[in-house]
Give the backbone structure.
Amino acid sequence: MARTSSLAYEQVAAICAQIAAGGQRPTIARVAVALGNKGSTRVISSYLTRYFEESGSALQIERNTRPRWSDAENLQADLFLNQLRDLAFTHARAAFDGERLALREQHEDMLERVQAAEDAAAELVENKEKLEAVIQQQTEQLATLRDAYIGLQDELENTRAELAGCQTRLEHAMGELVSQKDAMATLERELNARREVEVEQLRSQLTGELHAAGAAHAAELSREREIAQGERAYLMEQTHELRQALTREKETLEKALVEARKDADAARTLAAQYRTDLAVERGRLEERAGQLAKAEQGMEVLAARVQALELQLPVERSGDMS
């Protein structure tokens, strides 16, 4: 804020008038001395310029008395000095006006620069606010993404734990499957062994019965041949009895055959039971189907063998009778 001067223009104008009335040109130094060295030089200079502009005192001739100079020479010298002083003042005024104009232009340029700087600063402040808003938004988005990333990590850990549990259950199921496969193989071996034992027992039984029947027939035929050779007539009489005996023997053999068939049916029933058990196991594991099919094929072969044995009985019996 500019300081208010206590020196008035009227004081400076009055002192300038007194100095001009005394035949001297008012100057800054003379006015300052007349004021008792009060007031600033800048204020005195501005007031002195205003006084010259208003009163035209700058064109007054300052008279000086020079020793051994005539009045005409003194007048001409004073005129020349005044003209020279006025010319210097005019040049100084022009230079001052030029400098003032240049300073004003510089001032305006500086004001424009200041305004541009203020506009740039305002734009920077606005850009800063926008950037802070963008940074705040990006910070919030980053926090959201971080939370989502943490959630995905938790889900990934849970998925990994579930996968590990599934893998453990799968390994346990594979172990149970291997155990079931071993149990199935053991059951199949036991079934095959039991089937072979039963077939062998049935074969032995049928073979023994056939041998026994053949031996009995051979002995009886031998006796009959001896009787026939000794007593032909008696043979004729005994033919009827022999036929009855053969009939009874046939019935006995048929009964034995029926029993054998019953044993075969029992074996088939047992095989069917085993087949049913295998079917139950096959429902659990698909691999049992093929093994049960093999068991059924074995039973069919056994039935074929039994049927073949049944077919061989009449042939052997007819051969013995002949």
